């Protein structure tokens, strides 16, 4: 299978930068080396994938339902084993990765309903045996970062869906990760809240110098957030293209109304459409 690597030529010049924090010469944070996945029931969830993610990059896996986005992200997290191929984090097999810390944010906030916001955010620190005073300080920092300092005593049910998702992100940030894996974290939220959280996420990423692997099926979200978009197709799940989004950071809402943005979005729409037609023709 050939894997197209696309860089759109734009009507007017834009700096072909990675995000300011990305260091393309540093050892990659994530290396996916011909990793593939067939589930026990025979489903070929993912044909072999090769992908490297550099420090400070924001890479989005974009594709329709069933194309293997979650499977790939869970393999990066070490929650699933590839059937073949390898995945390295900081140059070591996932299970032995010591070069940095990773955190996973799921599609639903998965909060303990009976526990306060601060207790929820402290959970991974309690599990890791972090002393209480240090844990409390880190929880306070993380809640401040997501704008929820005032809600530390609230129960999850008192918060909106967007705020609950912020708690979930704070819980991940409290562990001080270098690599953040996010599986459609804002997919269940209304569009306005989602756009706000997208902007906040970019700000957090640059402030904390995070490397992010993000799953979405929203073209808009992919173009706005990413330094690189990995386009995937279903049946069988596979990568069909990677597209650099050569728009400098910081990005704001003005980017989303620009012709550059529209060109990227149109390109991705065509890629996804073509991949789905190719899939249908193959069946
Ligand atoms: N545990 C499992 N056992 C068998 N098949 C599975 C399992 N998990 C996922 N699959 C199948 O593998 C394929 C890829 O699933 P995956 O959840 O990775 O896709 P996705 O792109 O994340 O989809 P969605 O956007 O709907 O979450 C699908 O056909 C799915 O039904």
Automatic annotation (TrEMBL):
Transmembrane segments: none
UniProt-recorded Gene Ontology molecular function terms: ATP binding; ATP hydrolysis activity
Pfam families, A to Z: ABC_tran
Residues of the ABC transporter domain: 30-259
SMART domains: AAA
Keyword terms, alphabetized: ATP-binding, Cell membrane, Membrane, Nucleotide-binding, Transport
InterPro entries noted in UniProt: AAA+_ATPase, ABC_transporter-like_ATP-bd, ABC_transporter-like_CS, ABC_transporter_ATP-bind, P-loop_NTPase
CDD domains xref list: ABC_NrtD_SsuB_transporters
Protein family membership: Belongs to the ABC transporter superfamily.
The protein, known as: ABC transporter ATP-binding protein
Organism: Verticiella sediminum
């Amino acid at each position: 299978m050939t894997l197209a690597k696309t860089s759109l030529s734009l009507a007017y010049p834009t700096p072909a930068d990675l995000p300011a924090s990305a260091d393309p010469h540093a050892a990659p944070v994530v290396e996916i080396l011909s990793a593939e996945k067939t589930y026990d029931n025979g489903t070929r969830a993912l044909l072999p994938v090769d992908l490297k993610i550099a420090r400070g990059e924001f890479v989005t896996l974009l594709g329709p339902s069933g194309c293997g986005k979650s499977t790939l992200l869970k393999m990066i997290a070490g929650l699933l084993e590839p059937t073949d191929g390898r995945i390295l984090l900081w140059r070591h097999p996932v299970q032995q990765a010591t070069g940095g810390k990773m955190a996973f944010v799921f599609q639903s906030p998965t909060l303990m309903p009976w526990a306060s916001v601060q207790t929820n955010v402290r959970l991974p620190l309690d599990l890791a045996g972090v002393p209480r005073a240090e844990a409390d300080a880190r929880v306070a920092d993380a809640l401040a970062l997501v704008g929820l300092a005032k809600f530390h005593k609230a129960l999850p049910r008192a918060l909106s869906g967007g705020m609950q998702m912020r708690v979930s992100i704070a819980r991940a940030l409290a562990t001080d990760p270098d690599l953040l894996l996010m599986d459609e974290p804002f997919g269940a939220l209304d569009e306005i809240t989602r756009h706000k959280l997208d902007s906040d996420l970019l700000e957090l990423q640059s402030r904390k110098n995070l490397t992010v692997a993000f799953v979405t099926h929203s073209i808009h979200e992919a173009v706005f957030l990413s330094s690189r978009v990995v386009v995937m197709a279903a049946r069988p799940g596979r990568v069909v293209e990677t597209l650099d989004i050569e728009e400098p950071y910081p990005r704001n809402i003005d980017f989303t109304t620009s012709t550059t943005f529209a060109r990227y979005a149109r390109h991705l729409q065509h890629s996804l459409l073509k991949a789905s037609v190719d899939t249908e023709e193959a069946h």
